[in-house]
Design goal:
Structural class: mainly beta
Radius of gyration: 14 Å
Distance between the termini: 28 Å
Number of strands: 10
Helix content: under 10%
Strand content: over 45%
Largest sheet: 7 strands, antiparallel
Oligomer: single chain
Length: 121
């Protein structure tokens, strides 16, 4: 796990999930899965990354992942979303294409993330 802001402390919490996609193709060797928790509160502004994880050679779906984050870093007024991608040699192969809100009161600690294949890149 890589932290976007400093190192985790003893109070870290974990968002777990699985990513899936419909296409039945093998990922090329060297593929990398990445999932990020982003603050999407501000319109027309970059979405800062709160926490992220990468998995080299993620294999075939479903891809299980876990992202540790610091709950003390959460702003109760913010809107947090999960973004996930799979890349190979810097080329985007799969991406999440819908907003998947996370880390709100009552949200599950496990999320299902559908990925779609990117074509023409």
């Amino acid at each position: 796990m890589r932290w976007a802001r400093g190192a985790p402390d003893a109070g870290a919490e974990t968002l777990r999930g699985t990513a899936t996609w419909r296409e039945r193709i093998a990922l090329p060797p060297g593929s990398v899965f990445e999932a990020e928790i982003r603050d999407i509160s501000r319109a027309d502004a970059p979405a800062p990354v709160l926490a992220r994880t990468e998995i080299a050679e993620p294999g075939q779906p479903p891809v299980a992942f876990a992202i540790d984050y610091d709950p003390a870093a959460l702003d109760p007024r913010a809107i947090y979303a999960l973004r996930a991608t799979i890349r190979h040699d810097g080329r985007l192969l799969f991406t999440s294409d819908t907003i998947l809100r996370v880390l709100r009161d009552g949200d599950p600690s496990h999320v299902e993330v559908p990925l779609v294949m990117v074509t023409g890149n």
